[in-house]
């Protein structure tokens, strides 16, 4: 009798890849069937995030929900995996005796043994991944851990230092994804630009992208999580001339005040960040820049915040993610204390409001422009339309394009932007072939 398994995956795309690997390994045994609801599951797996406080709280909530189901049916198994467990192993084992098994971030390959209580050996487990994103897009994780040592970040505590995957393994996985119909590939890591730095190779990412570009079937390659001071001239030039790597740079700056950047342990100054932005925009005129900023870092005073706010208005990024600083035990910044919650909240609101108008201005400039779109699926919000994205929109984090007509997921369609659906979303008409 096959075991029914329900999976809850929390956190970032890097964590989702771990979930996909777990699901793929379990599926390969032939002993399980996956279900979408907890009530009918024999086993509930919660792959947790432990990065910042809100993510930890969400993970605990989901674990407690799974335990509630087990209390109703004691024969059920609850399995907790991922970052939260890796960070708080002893505490979780002590506080959650109802959990039947725990799986750390470096124990994903042991998940069959931990969940089904039997040995299983796979020669190339990464080829067994079960893709949980839409059928036309997938994430490709090129390394584990991070050695950048930002003072606020718990990732090295959880996942350790940088460990780049062998290029041949990554390429084999990418070919497998292409064979399964993946058209859009998201290259991800804690810091993609540090790929192969642990082997003394500063151009590892460019070499990898050059090989990924040769894979038939992959139409778009989207580069995520690029660390500012690791973006080389050769990488910018490669993206500028590439036929598949999109003109999209995800560059998390986190702040712009030199004082705050130094206390964050970021290895660049405001002046270097400005030169980088100028260089990218000059070499790739139609580039889209996404960044993230942390507001309310302990050393951020009113003048630092005003500097960040003015910078935001001046540079006009296409996409920005804002986060309130979360004080995390074990990190170097923990000893710096914390700012009052209301200060963080008011600063966050002001930045979001400013960026709101920048979005509208930027997107209004796109009306009348022709773009190639990839279709994600039918729109529930706008009947008669599908939801699609151009090179300007990363899946689930940027705005979308409502495209009139009936198109299949994964279909590439040339279209003209006709209007704004909101300050971040566009409306487009397909071009007549």
UniProtKB/TrEMBL annotation:
Keyword Transmembrane helix: no
UniProt-listed InterPro entries: Elp3/MiaA/NifB-like_rSAM, Methylthiotransferase, Methylthiotransferase_CS, Methylthiotransferase_N, Methylthiotransferase_N_sf, NA-bd_OB-fold, Ribosomal_uS12_MeSTrfase_RimO, rSAM
Keyword annotations: 4Fe-4S, Cytoplasm, Iron, Iron-sulfur, Metal-binding, Ribonucleoprotein, Ribosomal protein, S-adenosyl-L-methionine, Transferase
Any one GO CC term of the record: ribosome
Its EC number(s): 2.8.4.4
Free-text comment on the cofactor: Binds 2 [4Fe-4S] clusters. One cluster is coordinated with 3 cysteines and an exchangeable S-adenosyl-L-methionine.
Residue span, TRAM domain: 364-432
SUPFAM superfamilies (UniProt xref): Radical SAM enzymes (SSF102114)
Keyword Oxidoreductase among UniProt keywords: no
Domain of life (superkingdom): Bacteria
Top EC category: transferase
Sites where the protein binds [4Fe-4S] cluster 1: 12, 49, 83
Cofactors demanded by this protein: [4Fe-4S] cluster
Binding site for [4Fe-4S] cluster 2: 146, 150, 153
Subcellular location: Cytoplasm
Residue span(s) of domain MTTase N-terminal: 3-121
Catalytic activity: L-aspartate(89)-[ribosomal protein uS12]-hydrogen + (sulfur carrier)-SH + AH2 + 2 S-adenosyl-L-methionine = 3-methylsulfanyl-L-aspartate(89)-[ribosomal protein uS12]-hydrogen + (sulfur carrier)-H + 5'-deoxyadenosine + L-methionine + A + S-adenosyl-L-homocysteine + 2 H(+)
Domain Radical SAM core per the UniProt entry, residue ranges: 132-361
Pfam families: Radical_SAM (PF04055), TRAM_2 (PF18693), UPF0004 (PF00919)
PANTHER family reported in the protein's UniProt record: RIBOSOMAL PROTEIN S12 METHYLTHIOTRANSFERASE RIMO, RIBOSOMAL PROTEIN US12 METHYLTHIOTRANSFERASE RIMO
Function: Catalyzes the methylthiolation of an aspartic acid residue of ribosomal protein uS12.
HAMAP family per record: MTTase_RimO
Record-stated family: Belongs to the methylthiotransferase family. RimO subfamily.
Protein known as: Ribosomal protein uS12 methylthiotransferase RimO
